[in-house]
Amino acid sequence: MELNPETIDTVIHPTAVLKRTTVPPSQLKKKALSPLPADITWDLSQLNPKNRIDSLAPLVTPYWRIDGCTSWGSQYYATPLFMASVPPMRIDVFVPELSLQTRFVRDLLELDQAFHTKDRVRVSRLSVSMHILRRLQIWTMTIGGADQEFTNGDGPTRRRTRSERLEYAEKYLCHLPFGSRIIFDRLSLDIKQINITVVPTFALEVYHFSVRQFEAAWGHDVTLPPCINITQVQLVEQIHDSTSIVRIDGQSYIFKALTSFPKYLYHELRILLTTKPHPNIVSRPVHLVTKRTRFGGKNAVLGFTLELHRHGTMRDIVPFLGSSNTLTTEEQFKWADQITSALLHFRETSGTFYPDLRLDNIVLSESRDAIMVDFEQRGVWCEFASPEVNAIEYMRILATAENPPFDVTSSQQPYRDIMERICPEYETLTRNEKYDNYTSSYNVSWESLTPREQEASEVYMLGRVLWCLFEGVSAPQKATIWVSYRWESHLQFPEYQRTPPRLRQLIDECTKGRRETLDNQVLRVGNKLVLRADLEANAWKAR
């Protein structure tokens, strides 16, 4: 099966039970018997000049850089290089989703790889990134009508020079609201056929808080960090959908911000400002980054800065050390102790839970200590959490599914009834964009559990993290369906190879009651989903 956003609903999420699968026989017959007209065949042919890409070679002097992607290969972090100082404005490039492209275009632009690839190193090498950069190269010289003739005072009508156009483009981009979008209307192989529209995100500004709003919501017991304008913040690299490396007065920091649903960001901010310090929990925010909005004229808090730990996440470090036989037992036990200590401290002092425990959210400090990060409390992907959390999350997904292919009436009602019983406010917590929940989280699944059940789920996730740590792998799955890692795991939890026997007993105790996950039936091999049974059968035949 091919990877595309529809795959999420039909295979990965439980929404397959709501899927309409019947197709009228007449449509099947028509689809099977109708040949392609000659003009359409030529229109799709690679021999047709319009279906040829001029070049995918790296540009000599690019105006932009691609730092990564998300949203299953439809959103790309584009960093302008023609600006002397680039503020972290998060003006990303959006392209039509994968399922709308022909197989020819998907193969030529490596769109299937983009579906599950996230990091800058690998994404920047994909053909689709080169294609986007070449279109942006042309568009930059025309942004906001920069290529049009103009009259400067009483002087003659003329066109702007190259440097003037780049200066014009810089002013145009910096004047946009934070999180605005550069929309490609298509992924034509002829880049000149791709029309670009800039969509300012004025709607996002409505949900941004000012410092005064925080003080009114939290009271004066929460001490806020000093504010700094976004123009004083210089982007170095966008490393994740919500985090980037920035520089302020010559010093590097992590900048945390969201381009949608800022309620999660503000919830994390409050947690970090009120959590008692611990050496293995990320320190409190250093700055609040603000920008005056065009909607209402308030100084909106876009995000906050944190201490930068340059070694990066243990998701990449642990498998690298494991593959090079430099992952020492001493460090494994040290990190295991530090992670457990931090998790226990947070549970005992914060009065809340930590639902995001995985190696992705643990970074390595300069002194090679484990540091827990990411306190949005959104939770992890399906099947990363404990069985009870997964079960509730599946019910929530079924109760709130809205996509057109689904029957969203009678077949959904049983799941809605279940959610009404276990979490009556589930719809408000999920869909409301406004930050108005100042005490608890927006995580429906975890809020549905008792404190004891929450702790048991944390212990389950701790067991899986310990397994990753002592087996030297990035994640419990061999190949996570919607994201690939630089170093894919060669094991499937709970297979053991390296973990000491007594640690195996501990991990088994932590994950007692575990269930088989989707990976036991369906897994990603390269860019496709395959049935594990078929894969094993083919491997047996090849012997």
From TrEMBL:
Residues 222-543 form the Protein kinase domain. Coiled coil: none annotated. It comes from the Eukaryota. Gene3D superfamilies: Transferase(Phosphotransferase) domain 1. GO terms for molecular function: ATP binding; protein kinase activity. This is Protein kinase domain-containing protein. It comes from Verticillium longisporum (Verticillium dahliae var. longisporum).
